[in-house]
From TrEMBL:
Encoding gene, per UniProt annotation: moaC
Organism in which the protein naturally occurs: Anaeroselena agilis
Superkingdom as given in the UniProt entry: Bacteria
The protein's name: Cyclic pyranopterin monophosphate synthase
Family: Belongs to the MoaC family.
Enzyme Commission designation: 4.6.1.17
Lineage summary: Bacteria, Bacillati, Bacillota, Negativicutes, Acetonemataceae
Length: 160
């Protein structure tokens, strides 16, 4: 394995992807935000004073994916062709699971965009509900799959 974000002097650089072929690329990331059962009940009921928590989180995640290149120094600005954010309520764990799927056709992958989308969606949930639960925990943010590009496909297994 070679780390590509360093030049010959060991200094950070943005990788030159100009010689790479455009390919269809997709990345899926997941994460979770845990909270008090009462907080989850408020979110489910649409009773959080700031508004539709999951609606806001969905838009925040999409916007974050589109802005990843401005947040992560060595990321390239990408023309994303699709971003989807999904939520699943886990009553037993008093948590909301978040899944982001990001797509592009281009010279570099969208793993960072998917991870950023999940993270910011979770942070938006936190922001919307922090007045009633400051103890929420964002956890398990991880890449679960990617396809396309020179490095090929990746599917996370439980041992990763």
């Amino acid at each position: 394995m070679e780390l590509t974000h360093f030049n010959q002097s060991g200094r950070a650089r943005m990788v030159d992807v100009s010689v790479k072929n455009d390919t269809r690329r997709e990345a899926v990331a997941e994460g979770r935000i845990r909270m008090q059962p009462a907080t989850l009940a408020l979110i489910k009921a649409g009773a959080v004073g700031k508004g539709d928590v999951l609606g806001v989180a969905q838009v925040a995640g999409i916007m974050a994916a589109k802005q990843t290149w401005q947040l992560i120094p060595m990321c390239h600005p990408l023309l994303l062709t699709g971003v989807d954010i999904g939520f699943a309520i886990d009553e037993a764990a008093s948590a909301i699971d978040i899944v982001a799927t990001v797509r592009t056709t281009g010279k570099t992958g969208v793993e960072m965009e998917a991870l950023t989308a999940v993270t910011v969606a979770a942070l938006a949930i936190y922001d919307m509900a922090k007045a009633v639960d400051k103890g929420m925990v964002v956890e398990y943010v991880r890449l679960t799959a990617k396809s396309g590009g020179k490095s090929g496909d990746y599917v996370r297994n439980d041992r990763d």
